[in-house]
Amino acid sequence: MITAEYQTFLILSETLSYTKTAAKLFISQPAVTQQIQRLENQLEIKLVNYQRPYLKLTPAGEELAVFLTRIRSQTTQLMEILQDDHQKHEIQFGITRSLGEVFGSQLIEFLQLKNDLQKISCLAENTQHILQQIELGKMDFGIIEGNFNKAKFSYHILSQEEFIPICSPTHPLAKKKIVSWNELASYPLLIREPGSGSRTLLTALAQKENISLNDFKQLITISEPTLIRQLVCAGSGISFLYRLLIKKELAAGTIKQLPLERGTIAHDLYFIYAKENYFAQQYFKWFTELKQQLQ
């Protein structure tokens, strides 16, 4: 179990106040200070920096706070399961907005078949937000397409999808046999918000060609992939999306893939959850079944 010192530090990391932490724990403020100092001495690590009236966690303190938050969440889940005949009745997962359009309904239908699940919660968000929620123990697993620190998470490749440049069939670049990145930058770019996997991937692709997002004639940030597709069809700009998101539009000819040099990349889509998670075996089983179902 987590000792008193760790519990005190966890609450301090949330309140960032010795006074509020003392009030929550019904102890004196000096007692809080002593427990934090004792924990720092035990670990031989500086966890907080305090310059009145501001308290800030050190990088090591932030890492420890995330770890303790995740442990607290998993402990709560485990106690509920042990008290209820070992059955996990609630699941919370995240899926990126891009992938939610393609896999969201299939994933929920898949989980509905699990008779032990009474509550299923799905959050469609960007990659960064999902990673943060998993780290904090507020989300069981996620389906993402962005880059992430693989040392921090357990992950499995769900599929590999092509990430392609697109435009309207009436766009000036649509009839060209080959398009350069410099030509592409002459037009407005429709792009997802910071924190999204698509934006991170596109930024990395452009940087390889010595192109910055700021080099584009106009940068239009949109959080919804559906709206990006609509604006591309209307000729408002060019964009990059996963091919599986625009299969119908490509087949119908309402969206055209740009013949961009080195502008296409196959990227992995991940099933991801916290490392050393108590429920890892169950999550891996779900991943295996889901991957077979999607193939």
Automatic annotation (TrEMBL):
An example molecular function term from Gene Ontology annotations: DNA-binding transcription factor activity
At the top level of its lineage, which domain of life is listed?
Answer: Bacteria
Pfam families, A to Z? HTH_1, LysR_substrate
Residues forming the HTH lysR-type domain are 1-58
**InterPro entries in the record, alphabetically?**
LysR_HTH_N (IPR000847), LysR_subst-bd (IPR005119), WH-like_DNA-bd_sf (IPR036388), WH_DNA-bd_sf (IPR036390)
What keywords sit in the KW lines? DNA-binding, Plasmid, Transcription, Transcription regulation
Stated family: Belongs to the LysR transcriptional regulatory family.
Protein's recorded name: Transcriptional regulator
